[in-house]
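Input record (Table S2, row 359):
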Amino acid sequence: MKMLQRSWTPLMAAAFAVVTALAAQSARAEELAKDLFGAKKLPAVAAPQSFGFYSKGCFAGGVAIPMDGPHWEVMRPSRNRRWGHPVMIGLIEKLSRDAAADGWPGLLVGDISQPRGGPMLTGHASHQIGLDADIWLTPMPDNRLSTNQREKMSATLLVDEKTHLVKEALWKPQHALLLKRAASYPEVERILVNPGIKKKLCDTVKGDRAWLRKIRPFWGHDYHFHIRIGCQPGSPDCKRQEATVRGDGCDQSLAWWFTDEPWRPAKNPDKPKARELMTMASLPRECRAVLDAPAPSSAEAATYHGDGRSIAAAAAEPAVAAAPEPAITSGAGALPASASAFAATPEIGIPLPRPRPGN
Ligand SMILES: [Zn+2]
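Output record (zinc ion complex):
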């Protein structure tokens, strides 16, 4: 024992520490990314930056949309998915004002992202880099919803599950106006809606139809629509999605949705979902730093109030004295070339079961 103690040199101690750290790191690498990101209650304090792709990535510098605004209310607050890139949050607030001016009473805001993005424990495959947001197709009611109502209130399905056509009694011209307004912003690259909703727009929109190009048919999205904005400046490792094809999309690609093919049960229903397999090693390497970065002192400290201040500064303010510098580098030069080499996840692949409302 004495020998052992004497031979326990600082060098060996250092080597032991390195081995232990490496072992811990590889154990962590095996953990599912959804568990690690799903456990984060607060964002990573850093300049806003998205890493990776909409369905395989994470983001830093996230801000929360306030639970209530003049023209919006956040739904399902217990999920803590009201976080996004500041440009995304600012855009939702702008949409809420513009839509109110158009005659839509206000937005019911669904899921945006987890505080640091990443794969989710339940629900969406995308929404991982702070650039996706779901907005309900139900207008905000006159009375403020209680927390309980926001958790429990069920959404209205606008599409018949058998015919895949919109329910005529529920569809209003205001729905089209809201979607047109959302599509009008240059930051918005696509809006995902149920094929029945896309068809309704194709059949009824008169005059300017250029905006229909951004409206993309997809499974689900029958009680909410999904706004996706493009990669933002300051995010060199954000992987762009493919551009939408030319034209209004009211063609064969839409007709396909009204065949049996997209609605057949999956050939391999037991195939695990991507989030069941994604470890930290599946995500861009910067996501480790995002996970480890310091948090602000509270959610309120990182809540967007649209007052024109630098959001990164607002998010960092309360934590800056205590927290070390975030380990996230934002310059492209400091990052490995392979960081953005992840293959895009195709938007349309094997038909998935329709997500249940509330997911
Ligand atoms: Zn969505």
